[in-house]
Design goal:
The protein has a domain of about 40 residues. The longest helix has about 35 residues. The chain is about 60% helix and about 0% strand. By secondary structure, the chain is mostly helical.
Length: about 60
């Protein structure tokens, strides 16, 4: 690792539920909302995949 590597901006911290929001700007809050919406979509997609797999297994074992 070089000296310049230490100066790179870090990845923004993910939103932590219950964290203090008073220090964030409106733009930062909007960015967090977008991040959380994307995460909700990702979670819902995973639920659908798991439900689909479960239904396929139930159908297979009922036969």
């Amino acid at each position: 690792m070089t000296f310049l590597d230490d100066e790179r901006p870090g990845k923004p911290a993910p939103h932590e539920i219950g964290s203090d929001l008073s220090l964030l700007s409106a733009d930062e809050l909007s960015a967090r909302i977008q991040l959380l919406r994307q995460e909700i979509v990702r979670l819902e997609d995973e639920i659908r995949r798991k439900d689909s797999g479960r239904k396929a297994a139930e159908s297979f074992f009922r036969s």
